[in-house]
Structure formats: structure tokens, C-alpha cells
Amino acid sequence: MALIFRTDAARAAAWGAAFQRQMPELDIRMWDAPGNIADIEFAVVWKPERGVLRGFPNLKAIFSVGAGVDHLFSDPELPEGVPVVRMVEPELTRGMTEYVVLHVLRHHRRQREMEANQRAEKWEMIEVPTAPSRKVGIMGLGELGRAAALALAALEFDVAGWSRTPKDIPGVESFHGDFGMDAFLAHSEILVCLLPLTTETEGILNTGLFEKLPRGASLINAARGGHQVEEDILAALESGRLSEATLDVFREEPLPADHSFWGHPRVTITPHNASLTDPDSAVRQVIENIHRIRRGEPPTNIVDPKAGY
Ligand code: NDP
Ligand code: OXD
């Protein structure tokens, strides 16, 4: 029994060390030196090259290094019948909650404008309301959206969330499905996207959606670049439909040097690091699932291939 893994190069050593510490008997194979591929039963991967996973004949589970699994389902040769397990781990959730709270507070308190004023050595009294009078909308109320919504509700923001199915989250008004979308958007002065990227959500952050937000609303996208129509964001900023945007993810990553977002005075860019999987905690989840599979039980956090998340 062997496990093969592929993470970004910078974090590979930390993952290898975590496996070694937590399950020293595990036969770990490196992506570029898989050895006898018939031994490989588990793959722990981030953006594997298309078609490679299909080449492992005895694969029992594919674990995503990240919460998102769009990087796996975009492979037309993804082996059928092999469970895909997404990453759910407390540090990833904690990091995303921090990111969302930080940027919601920045938008809410108009911090970007005050920093611009400082650069211009301009003293201008900007009045900011307090949290209960600010409407925040979270698209996606899964592991990450739910935790972020609860943290914002604890700060007494007026929080709403939108998901496929109705939710009962204390302090958070729940909207769901196509039917609930317009009312949800009307409630979102600060809109946060934490949806998975699927065929249904691709390009969802577009002009049509921005027009349903209160005028001058702001956008935080910490989900996937594929959710956003980037020309529509620029147009909405230009027209005043959107007042500002904080973007952690982009259609093309790294963001190309000549992209208009870089120099835009009302766009804040972060380099897809809203939250990072913690190798120690992640390896713990993977090993627990390996034990479950060995006992003949289904792994936890399995993805529904039809829904794509
Ligand atoms: P989950 O699968 O736990 O939650 C997804 C949520 O989105 C659910 O509430 C689901 O609704 C809702 N949803 C899915 N499709 C639709 C739809 N068509 N209409 C309405 N709601 C929908 O995902 P996570 O919270 O763990 O992660 C969300 C995403 O965040 C990941 O897929 C990933 O792309 C991104 N991410 C980004 C990171 C970064 O650093 N930038 C880090 C980690 C994750 P329901 O509950 O009804 O099923
Ligand atoms: C993830 C990510 O999906 O880092 O976890 O984007």
C-alpha cells in the first residue's frame, strides 16, 4: 500500500514530514518518482496534470489538498468510481474566517479610502456606521461560509447567507436557490463569495448580479477566479455600481503583470492565500480516512461528483 502526493513545491517538505511523523509505516511516493504504480492506493493532490490519476490502477481514494475540488473535476479523465475527498480542516476554516472578517471590516470602515488620504496627506473626517447597520451577504454557507458568517454575526453585522439548501445558522438570515437570490443580493452591501466552482457557479459574479446589489456595494471574492467575470467587475467599479473589490483569486494565476486590477485604486489584491491548508492538520484528516477505508467504511467529506463539490 502506497500513497502518492503532489502539493506546491514550497510546502512539499512540510507535508512529507507530517506523513512521516504521523504514520511512519506509510509508503510515501513522490509525484515525479512514483515507483511501481500498482502499489499506489491513495493520492493526495493539488492540481495534478490531466490524465495522470487515471494511470494508477489500484487507487482507492483521491484526496484534495485544498477545500476546492474544481482542480480535479476539470480533468476529463478523472477515474470514475474512485471517491474524491475534499479538505475540511480547522486551520483552513480559521484562516478563511480571519480573511473574511479582516476585509469585511476594511470595507465597512472605509479603510482603503483613509489609507489613500494618508498617502495624499489629506485629513478628511469619514463617518463610519457600526456593524448592526451594515448588511453583509455570504454566498456559500458550507464549511467556510458558515464559520465566516458566524464570526460576522458575533460582531453583530446584519448577516445573510445564500446556499443551495436552506440553513439554520444563529444570527444569519438564510436564503437559498434561484428563488432566494434576488432578496439575498438586495441585502448584501458587502458581498462575500465562498462558493465552490461548479458548472452552476462559473461566472456568477457578473454585471447581472452586480445590478441586483445595493448601489455602491462592495465585493470580496475568496473562492475561485472562475466565479468572476473580470471585465464586469472593472465596469461595475467604473460605473459606481461597485465601490470596491477585494480579490484573492483570479481567472489567471499568478495575475498577469499587465492586468488592470494591479493598479486599480479600488481593488485590493491578495495572492490566493486567503487561507492555506495546514499540513499537520490535513495529514491527520487523510490518515483518519485511510483507516476508515481500511475498515471498509466510506471516507468523510466525500464529494458528490454530480454536484461537483
Ligand atoms: P462547501 O462545499 O463546504 O460549501 C459550499 C457551499 O456553497 C454550500 O453551502 C453550498 O450549498 C453552496 N453552493 C454550492 N453550489 C451552489 C449553488 N449553485 N447555489 C447556491 N449555493 C451553492 O465548501 P467550503 O466552504 O469548504 O469551500 C468553498 C470554496 O472556497 C472552495 O470550493 C474553494 O474553491 C474556496 N477556497 C478558497 C481558498 C482560498 O485561499 N482562496 C481556501 C479554501 C477554499 P449547500 O450547503 O446547500 O450544499
Ligand atoms: C483551497 C484553496 O481550495 O486553497 O483550499 O484554494
Note down, in words, how this protein is organized.
It is built from nine helices and twelve strands. The strands form two sheets. The chain has a seven-stranded parallel sheet. The longest helix has 19 residues, at 90-108. α1 packs across α9 (279-294) and α3 packs across α5. It has two domains: 2-89 and 277-294, NAD(P)-binding Rossmann-like Domain (Rossmann fold, 3-Layer(aba) Sandwich); 90-269, Rossmann fold, CATH 3.40.50.720. With 309 residues, it is of the alpha/beta class. The protein binds NADPH dihydro-nicotinamide-adenine-dinucleotide phosphate (NDP) and oxalic acid (OXD).
The percentage of residues in β strands lies in 15-25%
Task: State the domain count.
Answer: 2
The tally of beta strands, per DSSP, is 12
CATH architecture group name of the largest domain? 3-Layer(aba) Sandwich
The name CATH uses for the topology of the largest domain is: Rossmann fold
Order of helices and strands: EHEEEHEHHEHEEHEHEHEEH
Can you summarize the main beta sheet? 7 strands, parallel
Q: CATH-wise, what's the superfamily of the largest domain? A: NAD(P)-binding Rossmann-like Domain
